[in-house]
TrEMBL record:
<keyword id="KW-0812">Transmembrane</keyword>
<feature type="compositionally biased region" description="Basic and acidic residues">
    <location>
        <begin position="417"/>
        <end position="433"/>
    </location>
</feature>
<feature type="transmembrane region" description="Helical">
    <location>
        <begin position="20"/>
        <end position="41"/>
    </location>
</feature>
<feature type="compositionally biased region" description="Basic residues">
    <location>
        <begin position="404"/>
        <end position="416"/>
    </location>
</feature>
<keyword id="KW-0472">Membrane</keyword>
<protein>
    <recommendedName>
        <fullName>PrgI family protein</fullName>
    </recommendedName>
</protein>
<feature type="transmembrane region" description="Helical">
    <location>
        <begin position="47"/>
        <end position="66"/>
    </location>
</feature>
<feature type="region of interest" description="Disordered">
    <location>
        <begin position="396"/>
        <end position="440"/>
    </location>
</feature>
<dbReference type="InterPro" id="IPR049978">
    <property type="entry name" value="SCO6880-like"/>
</dbReference>
<keyword id="KW-1133">Transmembrane helix</keyword>
Amino acid sequence: MTDTTAVAKYSGWQSEKSGWIGDVSGPGVALIGAATAAAVLPLYLHSWPAAAVCLPLTGLLLALAFGRIQGLTAAEWITLAVRHQISVARREHLFLSGVFAPRTAAGDQPLDLPGTLARLRILSAPDGLGGTLAVVHHPVDRTYTAVARITYPELALVDEDRKEARVAGWRDVLRSLCTEEGAITRIAVHQRCLPDDGGALREWAARHIAQDAPPSAVETLDGLMSGAGPVSTKRETYLALTLSASRARLAVRGAGGGQRGACAVLVRELGALRGALAAAALTVEEWLGPRELAAVIRTAYDPHIQPALSAHDALAKAPDWQGEAKGVDPALAGPAAAEKHWNSYRHDGGHSIAYQVRGLPHEAVLATVLQPLMRPRTTARRTLTLLYEPIGPRRARNELSRERTKRRSARILRARTGRDESEDQVREDRTARSQDQARAAGQGVVRLTALLALTVTDPEVLDTAAAELQADASDAGLRVRRVWGGMDEGFAVACLPLGRGLPDRRRPL
């Protein structure tokens, strides 16, 4: 929603409630039940020794259920720790790639990737324009994802009317996907800030130097290029669209069925979105093919390969090039080795930390609120991923109605117990009501989450880079938390534009 001020500001989001009863999860309810039984047992037994044992146990169980550290209960922390230790005991935290990832009988190319990404396959499909499109297929989830490299004009230096029009264009893209049983079930925006060797800058300078330029000026320019290259950075932005074959089963069947039919439906959906993306001032540079997508994955796992791959791709653009095509063979996209730690993730020559955004700003913010997150830093490369899941009108009505009912019940309970409402609770109730009103007026509803990650090649600067990222997130008004115990999953979502999605309900990662 937009404020009626000269400078457009935006707000209206709120955290998704996942508690089984109120804010208490299912395990929390079980702990409360056990605590109640422990408290009642001494009364039933009429035993003081039993009370001496059961009452401290009751206090411990209630502390596990209600005590929170960094937004998680003690029981949830214990669950994460136990899950991590089990994976370590089973050596599931380690990954060593095979020599090759052989093709299957169906002809699709497996990606030799660790963890939850092991099931992914890259399919090749015609893009309808004479080219080849890479489609990431998850055979269990039955999803098909296409990835585009996009560019967009900066918002910081444009006037407010144009800025608001671009934000409204993106809003219309999301709203167009909020349909009943829509085929596109997820849209992900992925941006990463990479160190640049300065090759593009030097190439541009070489093309624009005048033939009669003074030698001293050319020498000075060469010195500037040599100094600017190692400290310059570049941004890459990707848009991933995911189709659910289950929800689009009739369309897939009509297009021939199977993987071929699903890819055809996905290409058709991409074509239908071209106009909406253009209206949002998003320019699709290219829909990535198998080798281009594999290169994006490979450079995320191995930062050291970026300069060599950029140089190779520049040579491969020459019309008389006889060597290997640009990009990377999909069989070599994954890491040679990877290891998950409790608080970090090591992969080839990189060390990464993933963060989940646990809280968005409470107040209305400008459209440029996320800019501090992608500030150029010499210590680390950064990535930001925004995941949107469009919700159909019927489900949105039920979800928002359930949300309002939960909050109304909690308000009645607080009134009966004599507790005052906090300002946060009043604001959340008002936001839930305004969301339902906007939905009734025809606006779309989406689930949104954001993940951040940083990658360094020197583990000695990892803590410094983490402190810088947390400070920049604070400047943007975001509350972030490390993906403790699940760094490999956090890396897969935050650093790889593969359209991996949200859980059905919010859960600690």
